[in-house]
Write a structure and sequence with these properties.
The complex is a heterodimer of chains A (about 280) and B (about 100). Chain A is mostly helical. Chain A is built from 10 helices and no strands. In chain A, helix 5 packs antiparallel against helix 8 and helix 8 runs antiparallel to helix 9. With about 100 residues, chain B is mainly α. Chain B has a domain of about 45 residues. Classes of the chains: A mainly alpha (about 280), B mainly alpha (about 100). Chains A and B meet through helix 1, helix 2, helix 3, helix 4 and helix 8 of A and helix 1, helix 2, helix 3 and helix 4 of B. Chain B: It is an enzyme of class 7 (translocase).
Chain lengths: ~280, ~100
């Protein structure tokens, strides 16, 4: 199928995502809204599979079947009370997927390592960074909500210092990776590792009661990661849907904060301030 | 030029995302979060392209693993949202029947 037709179908699916998200916001239409957005996802997947770029279906088929089975079984089995932590796990799963897409984009035609434009490199670094933080952050949120990890556990002396140090190292490695093509190989490993560590450090000092807000925030991050991955591989539907989720997630996080009498900045930065105020 | 065009798309989508979520009843917060999370599984499109476009063995492997995780996100996310909403609908109907 030629790229123009695929682009046209992407426009239709983007409209369906927008309409679906709109309908999810009101109780009477929410079920239909979710259905519309799931059909849009199905269309986007099918039309991508028909793209001329796709030459090998074997691994895609295997991975899709396995992923569908695991997703469906866990979604069926989870107790109603366990929903928020399940959302956290799925969200983390989306985050690691965006990290991997960003990583794989390093091997785009155009010369692989060193052959990519600075702009593409920046978006690759962003998708790896945000995806990694989303992944481990979501896992910690899941562990706290399901009480595998104590609600207040994890905050240690000097936490703030260590978090800032990791953040600084991450920034340095990212910059080196973008401006020195020869260093891309080792630096990409460092960025992946540091972003995974940062995800843990950012969420671990936050109290269990704040976890729903944190999951909503991480959900927004996973949208941003998908958006960055979209820039890395020049794909409009990833950019549109990712940005939609990113923006909607931030607003929703803010609304949830207000409903729980918390300030957004408090939840956002408690990993970097002295006390987590675990409640 | 391409960059500018993609940037415009990003800007419009962000504004749209802000506008879509304004007055949401608090009972819908969790399903909405879950539904939005399923949409962020759109990264599966990128994963399929990475896995199937013959970019070499390493990229194919990364892509295939990404397809797996994104698929868990998509299928699980939509199903969990649907389950939450179906429970919610029952709750909404019962008081009406009583009154």
């Amino acid at each position: 199928m030629n790229p123009e037709i695929i682009g046209g179908v992407y426009i239709v699916t983007a409209a369906m995502f927008i309409y679906g998200l709109k309908r999810l916001g009101s109780p009477a239409t929410a079920v239909g809204g979710n259905l519309i957005s799931s059909i849009a996802m199905l269309i986007a997947v099918i039309v991508t599979m028909l793209s001329l770029e796709i030459v090998d279906y074997r691994w895609i088929a295997v991975a899709m079947v396995l992923g569908s089975i695991i997703g469906a079984v866990t979604a069926r089995r989870v107790e109603m009370t366990g929903m928020p932590e399940m959302v956290a796990l799925f969200n983390g799963s989306g985050g690691i997927a965006s990290l991997l897409v960003g990583w794989a984009a390093l091997y785009s035609p155009g010369g692989g390592f060193g052959g990519l434009s600075a702009f593409t490199m920046v978006t690759i670094v962003l998708s790896i960074l945000i995806g990694g933080v989303t992944f481990t952050g979501s896992l910690v949120a899941w562990a706290k909500l399901s009480e595998r990890l104590g609600s207040g556990a994890g905050a240690f002396a000097g936490q703030q210092f260590v978090s800032l140090l990791v953040l600084a190292a991450l920034v340095v490695c990212s910059v080196v990776m973008v401006i020195l093509p020869g260093w891309t190989g080792p630096m990409v490993s460092a960025v992946i590792l540091l972003s995974l560590v940062l995800g843990v450090l950012a969420v671990i000092p936050i109290g269990g009661a704040d976890m729903p807000v944190v999951i909503s925030l991480l959900n927004s991050y996973s949208g941003l990661a998908a958006c960055a991955a979209g820039f890395a591989i020049n794909n409009t539907i990833l950019i549109v849907a990712g940005a939609l989720v990113g923006a909607a997630g931030i607003i929703l996080t803010n609304i949830m904060c207000r409903a729980m009498n918390r300030s957004l900045s408090h939840v956002l930065f408690s990993g970097f301030t002295a006390t987590g105020a675990a409640t | 030029m391409d960059m500018v065009y993609l940037g415009f798309i990003l800007m419009l989508s962000v504004f749209l995302g802000f506008e879509l979520i304004s007055k949401v009843p608090s009972t819908l917060h969790t399903p909405l979060m879950s539904g939005a999370n399923a949409i962020s599984g759109i990264t599966i499109v990128g994963a399929i392209l990475a896995a199937g476009a013959d970019l070499g063995p390493w990229a194919t492997w990364l892509g295939a693993i990404a397809v797996f995780f994104a698929m868990v996100n998509v299928v699980g996310g939509y199903m969990v949202t649907d389950r939450m909403l179906s429970m919610f609908k029952k709750k909404d109907n019962s008081p009406k029947e009583k009154s």
